[in-house]
Design brief:
2 copies of one chain form a homodimer.
Chain A lengths: L8 H15 L6 H8 L3 H7 L3 H24 L5 H22 L1 H12 L2 H24 L8 H11 L17 H17 L5
Helix pairs in contact in A: 1-2, 2-3, 4-5, 4-6, 4-7, 5-6, 5-7, 5-9, 7-8
């Protein structure tokens, strides 16, 4: 059924995701992935040098599904405050939708990401970097006054963790979550607007 | 050894904590607590109507150990911004110290609190209420301008979750955590200082 001459990294990652969904991160093996593709595990190892490398690639692709669509928001031409609101609402909305639609897969991916520390650290830097771009644009446009957009981007991401960090997923069904997010974001945007008193 | 005539709720809670430390929340029973005290489980039930009631009382007392010392900070005579900084640093510091000194007990208590939803909700309201007091004092002193100190108190607590919410305990050993907290708090305080543009 499968065409082994066309065994791409992408097809392996698709199969690995499916295996992960079925067995969970603790039990899934490279052999399971190879079996799902109808190839030898050697064929998989030609693309991914180790189980850890495959696991990291799966985590990376999953996290990119969150961060990539946000680039468009981060680089749009809207006023910076409006962009920030939309960016943070989309990040939170994407995570909450993923957690709601397939809670088990979400928990599995979260577990997988937790053991791929470098991948998560990189993901968080990408997100904070996008926020820094918005802040820097706001400074350039005279909307915001902050001395270091990189520090501000990181602070914005951390201050909104409750609304996008998977560790909080049990709280995401609480009523009033969108109001809570709006209140936090409004306070943060007011903070960016303030001239530092240093 | 034990004086059953003096079986107080406090002594039962002490014993329950010890049992919880030893067996974890899933395995600990009321009978274990009674045995540790050398009394019948009926004697325990005279103070706590059910296992759930005992569990909630343990969680409540644990959380009060975090919130009670903060009252003094919330009601001190320092300028509001300084008080906020100290209050948030103390909350984060207390949680981090607890998690570091006895990680297993901390994880057990966190698990216990999670199944005592009303207790946690009440604890969070107490904390947000203390923050609201600081914000309201800052407004009265002309330091802050916010339309609703209650909303601001809640937002301040949520925006700093990464630094005090037990779900983030795995991240608390990361280097630079105090700098991160300082950056988030500085941004939030600047937000309070801003006049709303509504």
């Amino acid at each position: 059924m499968s065409d082994t001459t066309a065994l791409s990294a992408g097809r392996i990652l698709d199969a690995a995701e499916e295996v992960l969904r079925r067995y969970g991160p603790a039990k899934a093996t490279v052999l399971d992935v190879a079996r799902a593709l109808g190839v030898s595990h050697g064929s998989v190892y030609r693309h991914f040098a180790s189980k850890a490398a495959l696991r990291e690639a799966v985590a990376e692709r999953w996290l990119a599904r969150v961060s990539t669509p946000l680039v468009e928001v981060a680089t749009s031409t809207e006023p910076a405050a409006q962009r920030l609101r939309r960016w943070l609402a989309e990040l939170s909305g994407t995570k909450r939708r993923m957690a709601r639609e397939d809670p088990e897969l979400f928990a599995n991916f979260h577990q997988l990401a937790e053991v791929s520390e470098g991948v998560v650290a990189n993901h968080l830097e990408v997100l904070a970097g996008q926020l820094s771009v918005i802040v820097a644009d706001g400074v350039a446009a005279g909307e915001f006054t902050v001395s270091d957009p990189a520090v501000a981007g990181r602070a914005l991401l951390q201050a909104t963790a409750r609304f996008h960090h998977p560790a909080h997923r049990a709280e995401w069904s609480e009523p009033g979550l969108d109001d809570d997010l709006a209140a936090v974001v409004a306070l943060l945007i007011d903070g960016l607007r303030t001239r530092p008193t240093g």
